[in-house]
Amino acid sequence: MSTSSQPLSRRSFGRLAAGAAGSVGAGAVSACSPQAKASADSPLRIMAINHVWSQAIKRRTKEFEERVGRRVVMTLLTADQLSSSYNVKLNASGTDVDVMMVRALQEQLVFAHNDWLADLTDRVEGDKEFAWTDFQQAPREASMAGGKVLSVPVVTERPTLYYRKDLVEGPPRTLDALMSSALELTRKKKGFYGYVGRGQRSGAVSQWSSFLYSYGGDFLVDGKSGIGSREALAAYEYYGGLLGRAGPPGATNMSLEQAMPIFAQGKAAFYIDADAVYSNFLDPKVATKDVRESVGFAPFPAGPAGAKPHNIPSWSLGINKFSLLRDDAWEFIRWAAGPAMSAALQSDGIPGARDSVWEDPRTLAAFPKDLAESMRVNAERGLGYDRPRVLQVGRARDIVGRPLVAAILGESVRPVARDADAEFADFLVRDNRHKES
Length: 437
Fold this sequence. Notes:
CATH class of the largest domain: Alpha Beta
Pfam families: SBP_bac_1
Protein name: ABC transporter substrate-binding protein
Shape: globular
Structural class: alpha/beta
Number of helices: 20
CATH topology of the largest domain: D-Maltodextrin-Binding Protein, domain 2
Strand order of the largest sheet: 2-1-3-13-6
Distance between the termini: 32 Å
CATH architecture of the largest domain: 3-Layer(aba) Sandwich
Number of strands: 13
Organism: Streptomyces longisporoflavus
Number of domains: 2
InterPro entries: Bact_solute-bd_prot1, SBP, TAT_signal
Oligomer: single chain
Radius of gyration: 22 Å
């Protein structure tokens, strides 16, 4: 997978205005009014993140244009630009975007709450050739809100254990073994660390989620805050201890962009993060020779509750509720996320969302063998979310991440987690989460 594309960093997509989450506004009225018709020469307009997946699709759009007889205009934007554009266009019930590339776990609930996405349920379930059940269960479930399918996953992501094969005989299979090996290999005075990972308050939450699940916890339990549970507390203390005792200084300020280069430059033995960034460690422009020649890939280690990583749709396709070309927009999704295209793109190293592409040796050949196996295993075990499924995701992550910072700094976690749990419980009441999300 190309490393020149910014989207692999999974930076914040930007927060929609709080008012947008609180009211549907005039858009809902427009959606119920009679639809105007688009002219035959109106282009199908697609807005997407500047990602290797969307770059690959854009290069192939002529094929789709010939298929439907309509011109395609595909705009690739940065995360912030995409967020701002959606906010402006959708609040105004704009018809000048048809297909939208969205993050099912970040903004989809807000879009659903505001009735900005077309219901795709009948389309995906009624199309045998599209084979909706071929999509992995966890990403498929994440595509739903309020009992409706609102998006189709096109890019998936799991946490992979990156490790130095020249330093250990094999990858640790359990979290206890990871802790032991990481501490043993740590040489802080020499600038070498047993483990590196995200520690920034909000940004670390998505990676910590797999530790939380593997300790038997969850963000929500029976619809209520779960971050004050015994399992969550243990997960906080474990991750904080791992990064605090075996990690580099300044870990609480580390996002993906700060943590990844430390492993790439040969300064850490273990690193857990998105499998989508693996190519950085094979790239001579990013990684040292020692790392390129010795990097190994392994499934997420097992905790007390087993190995339970996340397996998420990092990017999905939806249809603007106000689009005048919804049928053609669906045809685009059928083509771009269909079995043939999914196989073709995964063969080029872009992880897809269909079971069939993960079962086909030809589509896995683009990845290092042990990486492909770790992806497959993590996908089988994975849960379909890596953050709380709420409307105000950014605020939720900020609350949940507070005990993480305390744990990394070596402070007492219990009182911080107790306060965060109370704050999160109050937040859930005020957040007005989608009842069937």
